[in-house]
Structures are given as structure tokens and as C-alpha cells.
């Protein structure tokens, strides 16, 4: 065998042994770092101790500046870039000094050997030194010089429980490594050899002397520009231990729990916006303490990127008395009236309403559910835009009954409402009044969809956010109309004195107050931001002062004025799919020949209804005005045509109950055979007779010892004067059509019937139990 062959064979054996040793003796696991939550610009928002209770913050390669590299390598291992983990010359020199007792005793450790020792701390013995050498060569085989230097700078000790140059830079200088001055950089470079003797904040004078000595040495070696060295020598050392950053504690905890073991989590928050939102919320709620209000939560969303730029879960994470660690952004609460904009948007798209269309606002029984407006009053009839602006409950429930619960909750599920999705099968008409669960995060995301032409995209909390997957909730036309209505400033939920303020922001916003005044909401948006505010108590305690208008909106306005005061001034423009038309002022419907008063209203071509207005109805009346005729009984002469208001039966009944002037058409011709046979039909037939109390299929529990009674009431057509009540098909009582009749029903199933003086009959069945 030739010498070349034997050499190759020997080299192969050595390589094989090295590979075998590498598999048997693998590299130690990566160090456990302190989880850091970073802001959008890379600054540290929040830092946590690592699992071993040390501050070991990961230094990224980009944070290792040339000045830091030069200072560390020159001081620790000037031949670092040239050796293979072990410096043979340094070992021989160190051995000679140690054996002869000349000079300072050293171990000739390279940076790579120090990394090996820091990864696996052991007692300083000759055997362990040999292991460090082998491990150092193994590290050199697996990692680049930059990665080894990065490991070193992440592991070097700085006293107490601080490890790594980034931890020291943040905790002592409140700056990341790449923002340090030359003097600060050299300060951090000289401490690792003596972390117990050179403690920043305690031995500053000694550290300053040692720093300047090394700066003079670097000047002699011409490693840095002379002026930089001169400036560094003049820089005072004012270092002390600072607390770790703790901005956005709720979001930080949320992200760290969702990404266990990840050292660096890049969030979408902007530090300035986060700090401002925290300060505003904290100072605002402190002024409310005397009113029994202790908490607030805030979410700020960038509408263009769908990223969260500020996240305030509570006003003080460290306050256990107010349950400060509860995350108010994610907490499920009653949303009050904040879902109404979505409902009316869906109704616009389905052609059920337009902004000027008139809706009934009268006491109504929806199969046992009797909603009330917030102020306990009804207005009779209101336009859709007024119903939304004034957040009226009864019209909203009426519209929801037409849109459909399934359609409404299905849209909420599309918008990420998790509690609604969970409870969908149990939700009813009360959903629109806050009878469901929602979080501030979900509601703010929903309003951000309104700011994005009705398209919803999940909110991003981490960076880069990626391309959002958008879902259309509303058409751009419906979203614009809702925005236009919510931007009106003549409204009851404007905070006291806000209209006189010069700094009222131009936003579209909606308030909400939950039952019992436990939750106050105010959510607003412009083209740039959507901001959601919740104010209340995490224990669910209500407060008489707690309303969205008076408590939540002032904070919302402060946030907009602080975060977007000098922002873009563009406002939303109506989409091309929207158009105008003339409508009747009385009903908001397409006018007919009996509609002299008209106005302009938006509508959605191809979607909005084209029903003709019939608010006035032509009636044939006798010459003396005492009777009306249908086509079957109109005489050949002796009659005239008159217009009478054609009100809904429930609106007519409400107006009369309130003593409002109402013009009823005369009773129908008593000699008409169709009426007497109970068979009045055709175009002249009046609207349906309806029993408004008691509710159909309802169960009533009465106490036998008390004189409890049930209310009988109905909604009848305008020409009806008298109604007749029957209980179990037996006549009970005759009464005016608008009268409220009370009676004591028998136990068991009870059939209640009502007949009007035009021969129409309607009945309901209820179950009565006695205790």
C-alpha cells in the first residue's frame, strides 16, 4: 500500500471516528432564553425571566455592532477568526507561565472554549479543560464564527441573574445593544471576566477606571477613530439596575402562552401608541373611582393593515383589588346595542329598509318578548337612521325579526364571534339588545370591517401579519350608509359638552350599555383607525353612571385626538353602487299621487324595495261622513271620496293610547252583507287584527291567593271601533278597540279570541298554572 493510500485511509478513519464521536457526544441543547415580546419597530415591549429565573435575552446577529465585535474579540480572543476553537500557541504560552510561575495565571481559553464552558458549566479541572477543547472544536465544525460569537454574547454573565449583553444593555442602559455608545459598549465588554467584582450601579467608579484603561488601549491599537475614543473617555458612567420593560402585559402574556419556548415574539404594537393608550385609560378611570367604576380596556386597530397597534387589557395589571390581570380585550361581556349597525347593514342589503324608511316604535309583543327603549318611551314611528342614531330597541327587534336570527348570528360567526357561534342555537330576538356574549376584540374587528367597505379580516397581533383573508359581511353601499349615519353628531349619545369641544374627532361611532349598567362600550372609526373602548368592573358590578355615551365615549374621543389628531383627513366616499331617489316624507317609500311631501334618500339599486307609499288611503264615505263603503256596497250616488291616514294598527293603537290626534275613517256601512257574514275581502279589507296580549303559546303562573289578572289588548285597523273578547269560545266582554281589558283566566289551556266590528277574528292559546 502506498504512502498516499495509507494517508488517505488514516484520514478517513479519523473523520469516521470524529463523526462517530459527534453522534455519541452531540452538542448541548440551545440555551433557554427569556421570552421577549417586541414591538412593531423591534423594541422590547415586555420581558420575562427564563425557566431558570434568569434574565437571558437573546441577542440577534443584527444587534451585534462592529464596535461590540471589535471590543470583545480584542479583549477576549484576538485570534478568534483564525483558530479552529483552540489556540495552540496560547495554550503553550499559558502552560509555560503557569508552570514557571511567571506572569498572570491564565487558562488560554478562546471565545469558543468559553462558549463550551457556559453551555455546560463544570468544575475547573484539567480533565474538564480537555473536554472544553474538544467541545470547542465540535462547535467550530457545526457553527459559523458569527453564530459562536452570538452564543457567547448571549451567555456571558453580568452578575446576579443577568446573562447576555442584551439583558445587560436593557437592564442597565435601557437600550438594545445596537443603540449603545462606544463607552457603553466597552463597559459591557470588560465586565464578563469579573461579574462579581464589577457590578454596574454598585462599583461604577471602579468600572469607569477600567473602562478608560481599555479605551486607552484601543486608542493605542488604533481600533477606533481617535475622536470616538476621545468622546468616550469624556462620557460619564451613570448606570443602575432598571426594571425590565412591562408594556402591554396582557398581550405579552397571551402571545408567550401561545408560543412556548419562542425567545423573540414580534408583535404589531407601536410603542408610542401603546404607552399613550395605557396612560389615557389609567388616568381616565382613576377619575371615575368615586362612581364605582374601576376598569377599562382599549384596542386600537390599523384599518389598512388590520394590525393591532395598542392593546390595553386593564388599567393596572398589578392591581389585584380590581382584578387587573383579567384581559378586558378578550373578556366576554354583554355587547349592549353595539351590534345594531351590523343588523341595519344586513337589512339594507336585503332591501328591507333605507335610511329614510319609517319603522314602528310602539310597545310590541314578539311572542312573549316585550322590548323597551332605553328611556322607556316610544315615539310611534321613526326613520331607520333615527332608530340607529338614537339606538332605539323596539325598531331593532322588529328589523331583526325580518332579517332572521340565523342570518344575523351567521354573519357574526363569519366575523369571528366565538361565544355567539357556541350559543347560536339558543339565541333569540334579545341578541340585538345585548342578549349574547361578545368581546372587545370581536366588536372592534366588526367595526373595522365597516371601515373597510364591509369586508372583515381577522385582526393580526404578530408581525409580519401576512395577507389578510377578507370576508364580505356587508356590501360597500350598506357599509357606507351605516358609516354616514354613525358619523352624525346630532344624537343623544354625544357626551355632555362634547359638541362644544373644538377637538371632537371626525369619526363614526356607536355606544352601548349592557343590562344593569354593567358594561359601557364606545367603538369608533375613521379611515385610518378603529378604536374600541370598554369601561366597567371585572366583577360584573353595575353603576348608575355607567353608560356608553357618558363614560366610554369621552375616553374614545381622547384616544382619537391623541393617536390620530394629525392623521389623514380623507373621509369615506359613497361607492358607485349607491344612488338617490325621491321618497315620501311620511314613510320613506316610493311616493304615489297622494304624497305631496317628498325628500331625497339613498337606496341600493337592485336591492332596495320599490314598494309604493300608501300612507293615505282613499275611502268612499257617505254624504254625512258617518259611514264608509266597500266596492260591494257603494251606492250609485250620494257618496264622496276622502283620504284617511293608513296607519299600522299597532301605531294607531299607540297614538290613541297617548291621546294624540288621530283621524279614523268612519265605520263600515252596517248594512253591507259581506261585513255581517264576516267575509269582507279584497283590496278594501283592513289590515290583520292581532292580539298583542297575552302572548301566543306563553305559560303564565298565577298565585291562587292573590288577585292576579291577565291583560287583554289588540291592534286593530283604523276603521275598527269595537272589539269583542271570548274566553274558551264563550263571550267575555265588549270594549273599545284601544281599551286594555283585565281578567282572571281559569287554570289549564285557555283559548282567547278577539273579534272586531268588521267580522274579523283572531285567537291565541296560552297555558295557565296556579300555585
Automatic annotation (TrEMBL):
Its EC number is 2.4.99.28. It comes from the Bacteria. Residues 297-536 form the Penicillin-binding protein transpeptidase domain. Pathway: Cell wall biogenesis; peptidoglycan biosynthesis. Residues 682-766 form the Penicillin-binding C-terminal domain. Keywords: Carboxypeptidase, Glycosyltransferase, Hydrolase, Multifunctional enzyme, Protease, Transferase. InterPro entries: Beta-lactam/transpept-like (IPR012338), Glyco_trans_51 (IPR001264), Glycosyltr_51/Transpeptidase (IPR050396), Lysozyme-like_dom_sf (IPR023346), PBP_1c (IPR011815), PBP_C (IPR009647), PBP_transglycosylase (IPR036950), PCN-bd_Tpept (IPR001460). The keyword tRNA-binding does not apply. Pfam families: BiPBP_C, Transgly, Transpeptidase. It catalyses: [GlcNAc-(1->4)-Mur2Ac(oyl-L-Ala-gamma-D-Glu-L-Lys-D-Ala-D-Ala)](n)-di-trans,octa-cis-undecaprenyl diphosphate + beta-D-GlcNAc-(1->4)-Mur2Ac(oyl-L-Ala-gamma-D-Glu-L-Lys-D-Ala-D-Ala)-di-trans,octa-cis-undecaprenyl diphosphate = [GlcNAc-(1->4)-Mur2Ac(oyl-L-Ala-gamma-D-Glu-L-Lys-D-Ala-D-Ala)](n+1)-di-trans,octa-cis-undecaprenyl diphosphate + di-trans,octa-cis-undecaprenyl diphosphate + H(+). PANTHER family: BINDING PROTEIN TRANSPEPTIDASE, PUTATIVE-RELATED, PENICILLIN-BINDING PROTEIN 1C. In the C-terminal section; belongs to the transpeptidase family. In the N-terminal section; belongs to the glycosyltransferase 51 family. This is peptidoglycan glycosyltransferase.
Amino acid at each position: 500500500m502506498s504512502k498516499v493510500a495509507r494517508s488517505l485511509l488514516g484520514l478517513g478513519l479519523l473523520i469516521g471516528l470524529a463523526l462517530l464521536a459527534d453522534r455519541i457526544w452531540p452538542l448541548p441543547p440551545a440555551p433557554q432564553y427569556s421570552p421577549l415580546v417586541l414591538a412593531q419597530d423591534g423594541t422590547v415591549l415586555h420581558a420575562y425571566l427564563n425557566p431558570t429565573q434568569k434574565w437571558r435575552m437573546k441577542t440577534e446577529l443584527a444587534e451585534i455592532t462592529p464596535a461590540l465585535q471589535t471590543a470583545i474579540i480584542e479583549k477576549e480572543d484576538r485570534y478568534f477568526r483564525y483558530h479552529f476553537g483552540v489556540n495552540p500557541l496560547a495554550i503553550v504560552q499559558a502552560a509555560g507561565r503557569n508552570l514557571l510561575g511567571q506572569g498572570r495565571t491564565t487558562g488560554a481559553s478562546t471565545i469558543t472554549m468559553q462558549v463550551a464552558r457556559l453551555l455546560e458549566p463544570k468544575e475547573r479541572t484539567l480533565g474538564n479543560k480537555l473536554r472544553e477543547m474538544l467541545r470547542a472544536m465540535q462547535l467550530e465544525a457545526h457553527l459559523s464564527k458569527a453564530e459562536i460569537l452570538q452564543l457567547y454574547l448571549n451567555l456571558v454573565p453580568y452578575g446576579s441573574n443577568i446573562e447576555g449583553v442584551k439583558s445587560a444593555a436593557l437592564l442597565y442602559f435601557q437600550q438594545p445593544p445596537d443603540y449603545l455608545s462606544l463607552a457603553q459598549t466597552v463597559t459591557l465588554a470588560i465586565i464578563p471576566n469579573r461579574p462579581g467584582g464589577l457590578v454596574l450601579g454598585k462599583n461604577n467608579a471602579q468600572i469607569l477606571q477600567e473602562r478608560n484603561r481599555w479605551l486607552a488601549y484601543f486608542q493605542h491599537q488604533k481600533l477606533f477613530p481617535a475622536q470616538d475614543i476621545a468622546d468616550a473617555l469624556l462620557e460619564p458612567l451613570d448606570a443602575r439596575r432598571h426594571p425590565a420593560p412591562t408594556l402591554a402585559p396582557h398581550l405579552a402574556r397571551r402571545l408567550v402562552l401561545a408560543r412556548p419556548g419562542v425567545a423573540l415574539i414580534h408583535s404589531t404594537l407601536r410603542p408610542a401608541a401603546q404607552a399613550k393608550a395605557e396612560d389615557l385609560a389609567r388616568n381616565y378611570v382613576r377619575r371615575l373611582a368615586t362612581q364605582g367604576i374601576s376598569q377599562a380596556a382599549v384596542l386600537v386597530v390599523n384599518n389598512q393593515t388590520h394590525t393591532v397597534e395598542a392593546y390595553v387589557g386593564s388599567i393596572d395589571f398589578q392591581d389585584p383589588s380590581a382584578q387587573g390581570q383579567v384581559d378586558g380585550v378578550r373578556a366576554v361581556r354583554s355587547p349592549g346595542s353595539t351590534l345594531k349597525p351590523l343588523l341595519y347593514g344586513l337589512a339594507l342589503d336585503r332591501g328591507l329598509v333605507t335610511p329614510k324608511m319609517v319603522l314602528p316604535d310602539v310597545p310590541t309583543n314578539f311572542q312573549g318578548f316585550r322590548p323597551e327603549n332605553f328611556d322607556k318611551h316610544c315615539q310611534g314611528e321613526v326613520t331607520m337612521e333615527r332608530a340607529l342614531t338614537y339606538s332605539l330597541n323596539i325598531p331593532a327587534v322588529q328589523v331583526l325579526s325580518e332579517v332572521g336570527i340565523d342570518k344575523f348570528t351567521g354573519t357574526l360567526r363569519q366575523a369571528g364571534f366565538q361565544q355567539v357561534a357556541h350559543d347560536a342555537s339558543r339565541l333569540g330576538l334579545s341578541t340585538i339588545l345585548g342578549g349574547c356574549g361578545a368581546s372587545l376584540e370581536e366588536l372592534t374587528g366588526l367595526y373595522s370591517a365597516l371601515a373597510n367597505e364591509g369586508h372583515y379580516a381577522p385582526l393580526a397581533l404578530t408581525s409580519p401579519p401576512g395577507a389578510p383573508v377578507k370576508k364580505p359581511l356587508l356590501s360597500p353601499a350598506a357599509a357606507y350608509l351605516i358609516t354616514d349615519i354613525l358619523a352624525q353628531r346630532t344624537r343623544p349619545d354625544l357626551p355632555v359638552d362634547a359638541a362644544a369641544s373644538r377637538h371632537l374627532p371626525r369619526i363614526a361611532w356607536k355606544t352601548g350599555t349592557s343590562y344593569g349598567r354593567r358594561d359601557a362600550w364606545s367603538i369608533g372609526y375613521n379611515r385610518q383607525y378603529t378604536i374600541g373602548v370598554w369601561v366597567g368592573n371585572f366583577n360584573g358590578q353595575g353603576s348608575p353612571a355607567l353608560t356608553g355615551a357618558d363614560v366610554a365615549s369621552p375616553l374614545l374621543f381622547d384616544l382619537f385626538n391623541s393617536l390620530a389628531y394629525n392623521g389623514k383627513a380623507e373621509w369615506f366616499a359613497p361607492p358607485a353602487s349607491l344612488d338617490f331617489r325621491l321618497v315620501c316624507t311620511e314613510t320613506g317609500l316610493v311616493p304615489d299621487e297622494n304624497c305631496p311631501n317628498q325628500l331625497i334618500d339613498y337606496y341600493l339599486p337592485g336591492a332596495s324595495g320599490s314598494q309604493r307609499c300608501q300612507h293615505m288611503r282613499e275611502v268612499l264615505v257617505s254624504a254625512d261622513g258617518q259611514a264608509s263603503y266597500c266596492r260591494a256596497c257603494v251606492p250609485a250616488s250620494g257618496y264622496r271620496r276622502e283620504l284617511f291616514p293608513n296607519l299600522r294598527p299597532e301605531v294607531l293603537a299607540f297614538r290613541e293610547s297617548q291621546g294624540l290626534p288621530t283621524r279614523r275613517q268612519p265605520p263600515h256601512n252596517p248594512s253591507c252583507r259581506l261585513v255581517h257574514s264576516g267575509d269582507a275581502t279584497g283590496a278594501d279589507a283592513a289590515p290583520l287584527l292581532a292580539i298583542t296580549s297575552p302572548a301566543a303559546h306563553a305559560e303564565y303562573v298565577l298565585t291562587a291567593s292573590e288577585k292576579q289578572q291577565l291583560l287583554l289588548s289588540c291592534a286593530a285597523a283604523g276603521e275598527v271601533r269595537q272589539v269583542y273578547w271570548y274566553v274558551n269560545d264563550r263571550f267575555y266582554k265588549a270594549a273599545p278597540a284601544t281599551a286594555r281589558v283585565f281578567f282572571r283566566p281559569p287554570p289549564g289551556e285557555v283559548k282567547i279570541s278577539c273579534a272586531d266590528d268588521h267580522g274579523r277574528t283572531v285567537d291565541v292559546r296560552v297555558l295557565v298554572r296556579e300555585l
